[in-house]
Every structure is written in structure tokens, then in C-alpha cells.
Amino acid sequence: MTLDQMKEKLQSELKPSRFKHSCGVEETAVFLAKRFGVDELQASVAGLLHDCARTFANEDMQREADKRGISYGAVEHAMPLLLHAPLGAHLAIERYGVHDELVLQAIARHTVGGTMMTRLDKIVYFADMIEPGRDYPGVDELRELSRVAELDDMLYEGLSQSISFVTAKRHMIHPATVLARNELLLKAETNSR
Fold first, then answer.
1. Strands (E), the chain
2. DSSP state letter for 136
3. HSE-up of 109 (CA within 13 Å, CB side)?
4. Tens-place pLDDT, residues 21-39
5. Whose CA is closest to 174, among 128, 111, 117?
6. DSSP string across the chain
7. How would you classify residue 174: left for phi > 0, otherwise alpha for psi between -120 and 50, otherwise beta?
8. What 8-state DSSP symbol labels residue 14?
9. 3-state SS of 27-38?
10. Helices 84-96 & 101-109, crossing angle to 10 degrees?
């Protein structure tokens, strides 16, 4: 399936606002891919399809994950919307014919991150936070980082802001987000020695 065909199919499956967001993430991911020397087509596909599982209602996420053998823990059980990321990787295969493991992993990790994130993972995670349609306190500072900071520094700030936001809402923080942030801190500490 070509990128244009993916876009047409995605538009027919998502609400207009979600499709617009997906196109914004695609555009932002391509910008970041150019900046950091990552494959632009991979960034485009992962950015475009990152929310393709948002076709499922929140209350259907666990059932759909179970049907596909996706394992999940207590946090996803309490907050099933988080399952749209790994579900999205499965739908990218099922509905869009995507088999690029780097793209699938970036889709699967775009919500909570994880350890040993690839550059593409980091780009899609961050692009989802700063795409042009996002409007929340601190987004302009993150957008500025996307133009001037190193990739790991950007990701660190994005993860930190995400943790602060989730904590303020009195929600659970996914362990993968904490692990991703801690890994960046350890890497920075090791590099400063």
C-alpha cells in the first residue's frame, strides 16, 4: 500500500479531528527525521499510522488486545486507552500491510515510551507531543527544543513533562515511561564522566 493509499484509508476510518492530528504527527515526524538523519518514509508511515487503533472505542481496547495476544499489565487494565499504541502496531500490519519492524515498534511505543528506544521511536513519541494541533502549557517550549536540542535532550524533556502532566491528573504513570526517562538520565551521567 502506498502512503497516499494509507492516508485515504486512515481518513475513512478516523474522526476528522483524529485524522488531522495524525497528519500533523506525520508532518512533524518527517521534520524531525530530516533533522536527525532518520529515514523519512519510516517516520512518515509511523507518524501517520500511530493512532490507527483509535478506531476502537476505549471500552473495546482490552478485548481487541486480547484477540491479538497483546499482553498488558495493571496500568493498561486501569487505563485501556494506552492499549491503542500496541494495537496500532497490529492494525498497521492487518489493515495497512506494514511489516517494517522499526515502524511497528515506533507505533507501539508512541504513547508511553520504553527502554532502548530507537531514534525513530523517539521521533514519533515527540512528534505526537508537539504536532501543530497540540495546545497545552509548555508545548511551545517543547517545539523550540525540536529545533535546537539534541534528540535525547528533547525526549527527556518530553518524558518529564508527560510524567508531570499525568501526576497532576492523579493518574498512574506507566512504568515504561519511568524506565525510558531513567535510562536517559543514566546515559547522560555516564557520558559526563
1. none
2. S
3. 27
4. 999 999 999 999 999 999 9
5. 111
6. --HHHHHHHHHHHS-HHHHHHHHHHHHHHHHHHHHHT--HHHHHHHHHHTTGGGGS-GGGHHHHHHHTT----HHHHH-GGGGHHHHHHHHHHHHH----HHHHHHHHHTTT--TT--HHHHHHHHHHHHSTT--STTHHHHHHHHHHS-HHHHHHHHHHHHHHHHHHTTPPPPHHHHHHHHHHHHHHHHHH-
7. beta
8. S
9. HHHHHHHHHHCC
10. 150
Summarised one tens digit per residue, pLDDT across range 102-144 is 999 999 999 999 999 999 999 999 999 999 999 999 999 999 9
CB distance 184 to 159 below 8 Å: yes
**pTM exceeds 0.85 for this model:** yes
Report long-range pairs for 2-6 (Cβ below 8 Å, ≥24 apart). Answer: 3/41, 3/44, 3/45, 3/48, 6/45, 6/48, 6/49, 6/96
Place of cell 486501569: 78
The cell numbers describing 61, all together, are: 481496547
Cell numbers given for 140: 511551545
